[in-house]
């Protein structure tokens, strides 16, 4: 048996509880990982609250959590380069019923990557969804390049703090938008300019940006058009179905009427991306900032606090910590 976070119905943070459940058994092409750390993502509280209740596999009773890091303690059948004792990190589907907030998780081999020696388990667990989103959105989608002007909303948050680093690694000029308490933190990440959204509205500024990465899903294409360059790109993390649909529709209209683009972003994860993140981290291009390390029992309250925003980096749950 193992300890895992569970919920039997959608609702507020108090529907979550730690339960004793059977340990998962790996099948062919899978590895059983003893989880040392699992990081929190906004998607977790959205699933718990029922925002994605239209997806049948996402309905309770079930576990919660995607991103994890640990060591392989067992493998299923089939040839694999994975081995017992290997330090790995990865992410399971958000609709997997078991979830990553557990002492053990089973994952397909192509959902895992080796942890670089420079990272501990908490730092590795912070990478997959947040850093993967930043890398794919800015490099794969926007093709950010040296000298371009990039603006990142939610620049202190999980996705945002990685996005600032990715853009700077590509030698772009970066403006970060954040709350008052996080201004100094975003400067330390390397942002060339930091805008406190409680004091100024970036959509009314005089600057023009080649890329606006709405990591916090705090704005819209309609709102940012006047600060986008003529061939600028607006990328939204689409924090809700409504936001995704709005961005997609406005993107179609933009292509017909201008050279600007609006793109709703959806992460395409897996081993190749995780390995790419590991390489960035090993080279020092990505530095995960773990704001807090908490126990499994503290995850419900931490997810509740995430709903209010204003976070800094990532919160990571450590298994075996009480």
Task: Report what the structure shows.
This protein is α/β, with parallel strands linked by helices and 322 residues long. It has two domains: 2-127 and 288-318, Medium-chain alcohol dehydrogenases, catalytic domain (Quinone Oxidoreductase, Chain A, domain 1), CATH 3.90.180; 129-264, 3-Layer(aba) Sandwich (Rossmann fold). Helix content is 27%, strand content 27%. The protein contains nine helices and 15 strands. It has helices at 42-49, 121-125, 128-141, 158-169, 183-189, 221-224, 241-257, 271-282, 299-306, and strands at 2-6, 17-21, 30-39, 67-75, 87-91, 104-108, 112-114, 149-152, 173-178, 193-196, 209-214, 228-236, 261-264, 290-295, 314-318. Strands 3, 4, 5, 6, 7, 14 and 15 form a seven-stranded mixed β-sheet that branches. Helix 3 (128-141) crosses helix 4 (158-169). It is globular and about 60 Å long.
Architecture blueprint of SSEs:
Blueprint: E1 2-6, E2 17-21, E3 30-39, H1 42-49, E4 67-75, E5 87-91, E6 104-108, E7 112-114, H2 121-125, H3 128-141, E8 149-152, H4 158-169, E9 173-178, H5 183-189, E10 193-196, E11 209-214, H6 221-224, E12 228-236, H7 241-257, E13 261-264, H8 271-282, E14 290-295, H9 299-306, E15 314-318
Parallel strand pairs: 8-9, 8-11, 9-10, 11-12, 12-13, 14-15
Antiparallel strand pairs: 1-2, 3-4, 3-6, 3-15, 4-5, 5-7
The share of residues in helices is 25-40%
Which term fits the overall shape?
globular
| Low-pLDDT segments | none
- Describe the main β-sheet briefly: 7 strands, mixed
Number of DSSP E strands: 15
| Total tally of structural domains | 2
Alpha-carbon distance between the two ends = 18 Å
Overall average residue pLDDT: 90
Helix-strand pattern, N to C?
EEEHEEEEHHEHEHEEHEHEHEHE
Q: From the 3D coordinates, which CATH architecture of the largest domain would you assign?
A: Alpha-Beta Complex
Task: Provide the gyration radius in Å.
Answer: 20 Å
**Quick one: CATH class of the largest domain?**
Alpha Beta
The CATH topology of the largest domain is Quinone Oxidoreductase, Chain A, domain 1
Discrete helix count: 9
Helix/strand/pairing category: alpha/beta
Binned strand content: 25-35%
Let me know the CATH homologous superfamily of the largest domain: Medium-chain alcohol dehydrogenases, catalytic domain
């Amino acid at each position: 048996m193992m300890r895992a976070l569970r919920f039997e119905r959608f609702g507020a943070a108090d529907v979550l509880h730690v339960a004793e459940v059977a340990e998962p058994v790996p099948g062919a092409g899978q590895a059983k990982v003893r989880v040392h750390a699992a990081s929190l993502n906004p998607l977790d509280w959205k699933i718990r609250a029922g925002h994605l209740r239209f997806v049948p596999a996402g309905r309770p009773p079930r576990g919660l959590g995607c991103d994890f890091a640990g060591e392989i303690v067992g493998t299923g059948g089939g040839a694999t380069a994975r081995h017992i004792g290997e330090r790995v990190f990865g992410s399971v589907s958000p609709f997997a019923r078991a979830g990553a907030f557990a002492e053990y998780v089973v994952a397909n081999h192509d959902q895992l990557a080796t942890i670089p020696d420079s990272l501990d388990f908490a730092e590795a667990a912070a990478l997959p969804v947040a850093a993967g989103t930043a890398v794919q959105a800015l490099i794969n989608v926007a093709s950010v390049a040296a000298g371009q002007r990039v603006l990142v909303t939610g620049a202190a948050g999980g996705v945002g703090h990685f996005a600032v680093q990715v853009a700077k690694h590509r030698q772009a000029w970066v403006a970060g938008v954040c709350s008052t308490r996080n201004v100094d933190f975003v400067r330390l990440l390397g942002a060339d300019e930091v805008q406190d959204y409680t004091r100024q509205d970036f959509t009314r500024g005089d600057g023009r940006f080649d890329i606006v990465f709405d990591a916090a899903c705090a704005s819209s294409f309609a709102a940012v058009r006047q600060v986008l360059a003529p061939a600028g790109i607006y990328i939204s993390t689409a924090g809700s179905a409504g936001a995704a649909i709005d961005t997609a529709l406005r993107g179609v209209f933009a292509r017909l009427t201008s050279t600007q683009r609006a793109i709703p972003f959806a992460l395409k994860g897996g081993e190749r991306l995780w390995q790419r993140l590991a390489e960035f981290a090993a080279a020092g291009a990505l530095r995960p900032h773990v704001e807090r390390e908490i126990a499994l029992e503290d995850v419900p309250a931490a997810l509740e606090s995430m709903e209010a925003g204003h976070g800094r980096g990532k919160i990571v749950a450590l298994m075996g910590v009480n």
